[in-house]
Amino acid sequence: MTKNDDSGRDLRYGLEEAVDGELPREMVERMRRHTDDCPECAHEWELVQRVKELVRRSCADRAPSDLRERIAVQCRTVSVTTTSTTTSADGTVRYSRTTTTRRTFPGA
Predict the structure, then answer these.
(1) Is residue 56 domain-shared with residue 69, that is, in the same domain?
(2) Mean pLDDT over residues 24-40, rounded?
(3) Does residue 18 share a domain with residue 56?
(4) N- or C-end of the chain: fewer Cβ atoms within 10 A?
(5) Do the Cβ atoms of 43 and 15 come closer than 8 Å?
(6) Can you name the residues that pair with 10 across neighbouring β-strands?
């Protein structure tokens, strides 16, 4: 919204709040009346509504249950890797062994 209201304020700055219902009803009604006469602002109002609806729907989607379970298991799993080496007197590695231990704790 680019048109100023009676007090000279740019109505665009309250657009998202108006769409979210966070402004006084009188102000929202004044903005809506303006959009009745201004195709540019009506288009902007519609775009904000569409974007907010898309975000709302996207945030409401849940991950599939198998994915949620795999993530939960990963969060409860601890891996510890240890390496032991045996060296000769001159510092040459004669033997090296790496062991990884994984433990998954039960869910809460």
Answers:
(1) no
(2) 90
(3) yes
(4) C
(5) no
(6) 4
Percent of the chain as helix, strand, coil, to the nearest 5:
50, 25, 25
User: What are the tens digits of pLDDT across the range 53-91?
Assistant: 988 888 777 889 999 888 988 888 888 888 888 888 888
Q: What is the pTM of this model?
A: 0.47
24: in domain: yes
Distances (CA, A) of 66 to 63, 73, 75: 8, 11, 14
DSSP state of 10: B
Q: Look at the chain and report how many structural domains it folds into.
A: 2
Give SS3 for 20.
Answer: coil
Indicate if 52 and 77 belong to the same structural domain.
no
Tokens 């966070």 -> residue: 22
Range of the domain at 77: 65-104
Task: Give me the phi and psi of 77, to 5 degrees please.
Answer: -100, 135
The whole-number average pLDDT for the span 6-14 is 60
**Token pair for residue 72?**
């939960």
Pairwise CA distance, residues 59 & 47, whole Å: 18
